[in-house]
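Translate sequence into structure tokens.
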Amino acid sequence: MLEIKDLHVHYGGIHAVQGVNMRIPKGQIVTLIGANGAGKSSVIRAVSGLVRQASGEVLYTPAKEGETGAPRNILGRPPEDMVRLGISMSPEGRRILPQLTVAENLALGAYIRNDKAGVAEDMDKVYTLFPRLRERAWQKGGTLSGGEQQMLAVGRALMSQPDLIMLDEPSLGLAPLLVREIFDIILRINAQGKTVLLVEQNALAALSIAHYAYVLEVGRVVAEAPGKELLSDPKVKEAYLGG
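Result follows.
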């Protein structure tokens, strides 16, 4: 579905991503782990069209084109094009609009759509996935707890009907019980047919659910393998799993 080839990202004189290669097959959960500042968020921001100083290739085949579709290089296209192609992102820090209600935040996630009945149906699906959001539908987003805001950010990303959803640090700042809940929901989203690219500092949780994983250090991929294999890798255990 998505293949990243020789991706480089620059911020002024900083070379944040240095020749990253990754594959995200249709229907899988692929995770990118690494320390803070390793360049993880820069990778998915480049895929999303949010950084301009990027080079390389991001080859994407929309799910509806299946095996017969020709991959197209989407690197450098604006974010709204990515959403129309079937790619959405739940950003680090949630970035909900605090003065809007839960329902209004979710509706913004469907801004490219004009099928009102379908939007209402998908909003109900989000409420089924996150019952607490249904209870707080008319509550302003800024009054939600951190965990509820994270649920809202993920729900908003689902409202565009993406084939590929990218989640940037969804467990950041959450209590352990909520972390488990968020990762259970990621599994449910994947079971519904969504492909997931997960960027996470919580390596243990991410590797436990990932079909495949990449380890990023100082902008470079230094290891890759199925998630459960990396869980038992001595170097990964020492660096990211507390030995």
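Note: The CA atoms of residues 38 and 217 lie 5 Å apart.
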